[in-house]
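Task card 7
Instruction: Convert sequence to structure tokens.
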Amino acid sequence: MARPRRVAVGELGARVARASRSEAQRRLDRLRERAVFIAQCGVAAGLSWFLARWWLGHPAPVFAPVTAIVCLGLSYGHRVRRALELMLGVAVGVVIGDLFVQVFGAGPGQVAFVVALAMASAALLGSGQLITTQAGVQALFVIGYAATPTQGLSRWLEALVGGLVAVVFALAVPRATFTRPRAALTDLLDEIVDVLHDTAEAVRERDAEALSELLDRGRATDATLSQLRQLSAEARAVVRQSPLQRRQAPDVQRVSDLVSGVDVAIRNLRVLLRRSLAAVRQGEQIQPELPAVLDALAEAVGEVSFALARELDAPEHARRALVAVGEAARVLAPAGLSAEVVRAQVRSMVIDLLVVTGLDYEEALEALDAVAEDDASAGEPGPSEPGPSGPTDTRGRADPRP
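Output:
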């Protein structure tokens, strides 16, 4: 049994430094991602304050900017719905709180009862949590701070001003809302490319430590995939709610449809990494051509990313490259159990990525079967090293033009 490797103090310090830099980078990235949201909330809050003072004559219209900030939030999805829910919740809370305080006055028992009554009434009117919560909060504000009907109504008018400002901002969505999901998708595919190339090298060198680190990288794609789903959901919500953005709907839906295919491909990539690590650790027989197949798969994934980044509707070059990789994996000579699983995962990833290029599952299977049938009728060739055919662009990717 192998002894666990001791970690030197210097190596531990280097790891801590890398983790600190990585955390700092993540925080900066988070700030950059939210910068537009923060700027919009700030401008909307200032505009709501100004309009409430100018239009309603309130000296300190705090609730107008609060409403605008809550409605806009830190995502583009469901902003219009949030604004409507908030205004309805405020209205319910104000009406119930005001009527109750006029009849029964204020006190701890009255507070408990009126908050529960307002929240129950709001729950009957709508299923949104924001409606229910705001009804309770506003009923509490009215019974605690507003003793007259005029004061109670003023809060709803401020909410109306802030909500209307939020609706205007919700309709004015930056184009980045629709381009970021596609960019995030291609970034994720590019990460798969890098992992596959590094895996090929690690298998070639039988480097178990490198494969273990690559497995960690493969697992880390969960966070990126989760962010991609969120960006895609936001874009879909915007095109559903904003009549000014309906023309973006086809592209947004297409990118959303591709997310599930990439998700399955990443799951298969993790299995590939685990079995590659097992084959190296256990000293199993590995086909000499397998690293070349993994490199070719990486190049084919790069072709898919290249086509998606340029919004090619029919990435034929990427499909041909993927089919060639699937065939190269099929004709590999038998080897150890883990290496055979790796070969199977290569073909599974090929099918997943063919789906990402626009084929359905049955068409992807037919594309691979057609090549196998052609080989069978012509006499199956021996194993060969696959690779991208045709001219390449300046980044080393094959030219997508036929």
